[in-house]
Design brief:
CATH class: Mainly Beta
CATH architecture: Clam
Organism: bioreactor metagenome
CATH superfamily: Lipoprotein localisation LolA/LolB/LppX
Distance between the termini: 58 Å
Oligomer: single chain
Number of helices: 2
Number of strands: 12
Radius of gyration: 18 Å
Order of helices and strands: HEEEEEEEEEHEEE
Strand order of the largest sheet: 7-8-9-10-11-1-2-3-4-5-6-12
Protein name: DUF4412 domain-containing protein
Mean pLDDT: 90
Shape: globular
Low-confidence stretches: 2-12
CATH topology: outer membrane lipoprotein receptor (LolB), chain A
Amino acid sequence: MFLMSIFILIGWNIAQKQKEFEGVIWYKMEFYKLDGTPFTFQMIDPGSYCKISIKKGRFIQEYPQSLLSTVIYDSKKNTEYSLFDNADSIYSNDLSSKIDIASSYSILDTTTQILGYLCKAINLKSDSINTTLFYAEDLYANPKRFSNWVTESYNIYAEKSESIYLKRVDIIDRAGTDYDLVIIMTAFSIEEKKIPNSAFRLPKLPIVKLH
């Protein structure tokens, strides 16, 4: 009877750990030049915050202050869809494209507290982007859902962390282009809640494939 109780307890703990996070996270967004001075966008400014709704390998990123109103990621199609205010088309990206693939990654020997969650860190480096993601292991994300998201090596991040990140720092250095900058996203609010499937439904507009 004692052994059976142990097995039940272990099974319950595993089930608890494997429950995927579903809900909404708000992130503060900061943009800097590589020298640390504020970065000013010449075209589409994403704004100072965004809202990301998460459900079983699907994301909705909303930018209330930007012409880029919404980005929807669908793990089944491994495609990212960008919607702009007053646009007559939807723009899609195939995330199996080998763009900004990490040449190395490392689990960092550092932790930080964000919104009461203990976060570990992973660093991904490509030729032009150095990305550090701080993730909360309590916010589980099934890595199998992202196994084909090769762009920016998100599949590696998903496999190694199995978690939702609460902070992301991208240092982008494309050898003197107009978009050499540092992007910092830091969660300032998190709410676990059910997201309706209808929220991920695309409007009936033509889809333009970018890559």
